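Appendix B, Record 12. Input sequence as logged:
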Amino acid sequence: MAGMIFGIQHFSIQDGKGIRTNIFLMGCPLKCIWCHNPEGLSETPLLSFIPDKCIMCGGCFEICPDVHISEYETHKLNRKNCKRCFKCVEICVANSLDRVGYEASVDEVMEAVMRDKRYYDSSGGGVTLTGGEPMVQFAFVKSILEECKSAGINTVIETSGFARKERFESILSLTDMFLYDIKESDPVLHKKYTGEDNGLILNNLDYLVSRGAKIILRCPIIPGLNDRRDHLEFLAGLTVKYPQILGIELMPYHKLGALKSTRLGTRKQNIYEVPSDEMMKTISEQIESFGGKMRNSL
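Logged structural output:
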């Protein structure tokens, strides 16, 4: 059993309880216009290019002349001709070119996970599967969860909730907590911002709550898009409707996703206002004034 990942992050303290190892999986059915991890959208490896690092050594021009083009002493990329052989990455001495995404077996992932088991045991931490959307590589994810459970390791999944209910049902007993994204309350706007409406997401949330799953809502805040009063009231209302939910974590928009999408040659993102700490504090207080339960207030 193998899957596609774009990173393993050790010693995380922000994606579940205690010290954690985060596994970043490739592939996502949503196409959020503010995506913070565009390297997780594709299910196959991507070529990253940072022009400012290029020293024009000429190696990639020789090995892939249909892709790498020298134009007025500037390195241009013709991605349409790229076969993603990544030979250019192997010879790039300036690290201007990089491969994002690689195949890893369950055993290889677990080898990385087990290196930090003593830290999980001492801190109450464990493994967090994120992405991308973990449910895209369901069989791979389920195998990792099974191995973690056999080793007595706490498991968390960060998910958009956009997957068949049967998949959540199949891994419910293997998952200690869900970090569940709620991006937009209005179904029409949700489709505009992500490519899909939010009906399936809300139905799966209802199902998980009914089955006693531990859930924290993770809610991105993008000023000018979803910082509206009606959306904040909706978020508050979810914790009122489902008092079992542990609370809401607000995730402020940042511009790094737009920078990464440029380097990867994926769909160009618009740039939005980065919310200040004061703005985020005000939004948190608004949600609480509507009866909502914030995670940082527990």
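The chain has a mean pLDDT of 95.
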